[in-house]
Design brief:
The termini are far apart. The chain has 7 helices and 7 strands, in the order ααβαβαβαβαβαββ. The chain is an alpha/beta fold and 189 residues long. The chain has a single domain, classed as Rossmann fold. The chain is 37% helix and 23% strand.
Length: 189
């Protein structure tokens, strides 16, 4: 897919000037990052607008945008340098993406328009639920990519939150998962 080739070339080039992905993973960018994001993209329902939190190096947001160029993909990234990369990548890839160089805590209006929410390697599940719950409808599905500590994160989050969840095993990393979460409400008491 040509758009993904453009993305990987830009990621590799910009990585020399700023930290977009872990340097140790750059040699395996297609498997470790692109394939990992594609596995999330395949799980997404149809949507008009998605919101990716902490977009950083564009994962999974720019991979989603490359696969669904007719859909709006909002990216929330507080680092101005990383936001500049995201905007340049959207333009070069020819995708519909809006970059919001703001902190997630101030992104309520952006989140309120989301039909789907994504995040990768951003925060604990408990913190992610606290970030999104006040701003999205109970029906809005959230897809969070998680690593080896996902079981502990789920246990911690269930102490504070009620939600439905489907755990999708990663097709790329043996101890990683994609958590599909909806129906988020804070526990009382």
């Amino acid at each position: 897919m040509e758009r993904l080739d453009v993305y990987v070339a830009m990621l590799t080039d910009w990585q020399t000037r700023m930290n977009l992905v872990a340097p140790s993973t750059l040699g395996d960018v297609w498997r470790r990052h692109v394939a990992d994001s594609l596995s999330l993209e395949r799980l997404l329902p149809e949507f008009a607008r998605s919101v990716d939190l902490g977009s950083g190096g564009g994962l999974p947001a720019l991979v989603i945008a490359a696969c669904r160029p007719d859909r709006a993909v909002d990216m929330v990234e507080s680092s101005r340098k990383k936001a500049a990369f995201l905007a340049a990548a959207c333009a070069e890839m020819g995708v519909t993406g809006s970059v919001h160089p703001i902190r997630i805590e101030t992104a309520g209006a952006v989140l309120g328009r989301a039909e789907v929410v994504t995040a990768r390697a951003l925060a604990s599940l408990d913190d992610l639920l606290a970030m999104v719950a006040p701003h999205i409808s109970r029906e809005t599905p959230c897809f969070f990519q998680k690593g080896r500590s996902h079981e502990q994160e789920i246990a911690a989050a269930t102490a504070n939150w009620k939600f439905t969840m489907v755990i999708h095993e990663s097709q790329v990393e043996a101890d990683s998962v994609i958590l599909e979460v909806a129906g988020i409400t804070r526990r009382q008491g």
